[in-house]
Amino acid sequence: MLNRNYSEVTEFILLGFRTPPELQMLLFLAFLLIYIVIVVGNTSMIFVIWVDSRLHAPMYFFLRNLSYLGLCCSTVIAPKTLANFLSNEKKISYNGCAAQFFFFALFVTTEGFLLAVMAFDRFSAICAPLLYPVHMSQKVCVWLVTGCYICGVINSVVQTGFTLSLHFCEENRLDHFFCDVPALIEISCVDSFLNEIVLFVFSAFIIIVTTMAILISYAYILSTVLKIPSSQGRSKTFSTCGSHIAVVGLFYGTVFFMYAQPEAIASPQQNKIVAVFYTLIIPMLNPLIYSLRNRDVKDAVKRKLCGQ
């Protein structure tokens, strides 16, 4: 009987945001507006960097990939969430849930490693400018981005495999707006201790490794900047890192809060709010942060708008 019950779950019901019906349309419009900004902002960033020869530098190659990841991550989540706002049956198939979580984990993990690579890029440009063309040649940049995706695939395969090895019996209601590990663990009818440990260990390892790479890079950057005699020179040099620091703070703050603490599983409502930040708000803000704080990107946008 138990084995038969295991096989009965062929789809999940995404409970989403438990709000009065009259607020569902407002949430739909808010999410739709955010998603439109994400698509327009990140697509524009990818296009501008691609066509403007002045932006064919390693830093902008990584930024273009960051925009691509933000666009892909939000697209994995937003369309289904928007459809569920307008539907009475907020269902997702078992295979659809597996695919959604796999690609979500892939893009989020890859983004974390890419942010660490971008910190190394700033370290190489500021601390070893003469060797920068060697350290960040086109071949090296391609390999670094490829390595980020490989790490993303490894984590995604492990997390998806462990999560889908759970049994759900007859309970198929996910207290979330997309398929995520904490929500799936919550409805499992078998002991999920191993899955929780795997989630915590992998998330903590990724966060610690990438965060240490970022902190070490910026420690050397700060040491180099402080040796510059003029305050104007120090300000100009460190300003190239401002956008990256802002993006890193947003990304790692929300991801750490969500996955690197065991208590996260016990607070589904809190998880949903935090999840909105790293699935939609951060991909929306990234191109805005880089376009507003980076003079080269602003100049490139102005040239394209003016038809130059």
Descriptive tags:
308 residues; disordered N terminus
Molecular structure report:
With 308 residues, the chain is an all-alpha fold. It is built from 12 helices and 3 strands, in the order H-E-H-H-E-H-H-H-E-H-H-H-H-H-H. Helix 4 packs antiparallel against helix 10 and helix 8 runs antiparallel to helix 9. The longest helix has 34 residues. The termini are far apart.
Topology:
Elements lengths: L1 H5 L4 E4 L6 H31 L6 H28 L5 E3 H34 L4 H4 L2 H27 L8 E2 L6 H7 L5 H34 L4 H9 L2 H18 L8 H26 L1 H11 L3
Parallel strand pairs: 1-3
Antiparallel strand pairs: 1-2
Helix pairs in contact: 2-3, 2-11, 3-4, 3-11, 4-6, 4-8, 4-10, 6-8, 8-9, 8-10, 10-11, 11-12
Q: What does this entry show, briefly?
A:
This protein is mainly α. The protein has helices spanning 2-6, 21-51, 58-85, 94-127, 132-135, 138-164, 181-187, 193-226, 231-239, 242-259, 268-293, 295-305; strands at residues 11-14, 91-93, 173-174. It has twelve helices and three strands.
Roughly how many Å is the radius of gyration?
Answer: 21 Å
Mean pLDDT, rounded to whole units?
86
Summarize the biggest pleated sheet: 3 strands, mixed
Total E-strand runs? 3
Beta fraction: under 5%
Question: Order of strands in the sheet with the most strands?
Answer: 2-1-3
Oligomeric state? single chain
Low-confidence runs: 1-6
Number of helices: 12
